[in-house]
Design brief:
This protein is an alpha/beta fold and about 300 residues long. Helix content is about 30%, strand content about 25%. The radius of gyration is 22 Å and the shape is elongated.
């Protein structure tokens, strides 16, 4: 899979294309991706996704949107579903000001679009004028066909990235996984912390994360962690460590990796959130904290034992 960050870096012919933020690559997104990759493969043409960074709402709404996926995480997920090329297109005021026709001309020039798939509510271009009707009109002019994919719903309604962000923000990673179709993930480098965990026989990997990444609510989680391509069990603390620190502002992500004792500083690891165990708490003593951590690990092991 190719992941590129500028249309000027690629020239394709007869590609099948879908366009959107695709944040989280949830079950609704996957319905479009399945149709895209299956159709493209059947006629041996590239399956291409054009996505955007930063999130358009950050530019258009002048508010920061914490994303479910970083550009690299999103590209990795799309690759897993069979996409051949991911274009993470920079989104700024100049792009926001393009008409649908101007933007589609660029895509036709660089990607050779022959078929465009879009979600039921998709629109692009200034003022969102490029809806399905307009894009179909442009397709007749630019020699591409269009296909609209209907929404995917469950008992709670239409699956959306917005709803999943709410669940993650509350720490409800299990329900979020149901809507995503996969566990919520986070990856980052293991960096040096203050070493307190090792002093109490609970050494943790302090995982750095991107500022624009949505982090689950502070608390303790059972997580799979991928280290050197191997999936391992872990209990993860997200928070400010109130037992030790009184004035922390940015939450830390610290993973206790079960049955593991190797130096992984500087390595990139990936978490998959399985279940929330409890809130982050302030304990009256270090011993009380250790006792609770032992219970947390035992609880996490029980959860993992029930995983398929």
């Amino acid at each position: 899979m190719q992941h590129i960050h500028s249309l000027t870096d690629i020239t394709l012919k007869n590609s099948w294309l879908t366009i959107g933020v695709y944040d989280g690559v949830h079950r609704g997104h996957q319905e479009i991706i399945y149709k895209l990759t299956a159709g493209a493969k059947a006629i041996d043409v590239p399956a291409v996704v054009v996505t955007f960074f930063p999130h358009p709402a950050t530019v258009l709404g002048k508010r920061e949107v914490k994303c479910l996926t970083t550009p690299d995480e999103r590209a990795d997920l799309l690759a897993a579903f069979g996409v051949d090329v991911v274009v993470t297109h920079p989104f700024d005021e100049s792009v926001a000001g393009l008409s649908a026709r101007e933007f589609m001309l660029r895509l036709k020039q660089h990607l050779g679009v022959s078929h465009l798939l879009m979600g039921y509510d998709f629109a692009l271009g200034k003022g969102r004028e490029g809806n399905a009707t307009r894009l179909t009109e442009l397709g007749r002019e630019m020699m591409y066909t269009t296909e609209v994919v209907q929404a995917v719903s469950d008992e709670s309604g239409v699956i959306s990235s917005t709803e999943i962000r709410k669940l993650i923000g509350l720490g409800n990673v299990a329900d979020a996984a149901n809507l995503l179709g996969h566990n919520y993930g986070l990856h980052g480098l293991v960096v040096h912390g203050d070493g307190r965990g090792r002093k109490i026989n609970f050494p943790t990997a302090n995982i750095e994360y991107a500022d624009g990444k949505l982090i689950p609510a502070n608390g303790i989680y059972a997580c799979w962690i991928w280290v050197n391509g191997v999936r391992r069990k872990s209990a993860v603390n997200i928070g400010v460590r109130p037992t030790f620190v009184n004035d922390a502002t940015r939450s830390l992500v610290e993973a206790f990796i079960m049955d593991f004792d190797s130096d992984i500083y500087g390595q990139d690891v990936r978490l998959e959130f399985v279940a929330r165990l409890r809130d982050e708490l302030k304990f009256s003593s270090v011993n009380a904290l250790i006792e609770q951590m032992q219970r947390d690990v035992a609880w996490a092991r029980e959860i993992f034992s029930k995983q398929k």
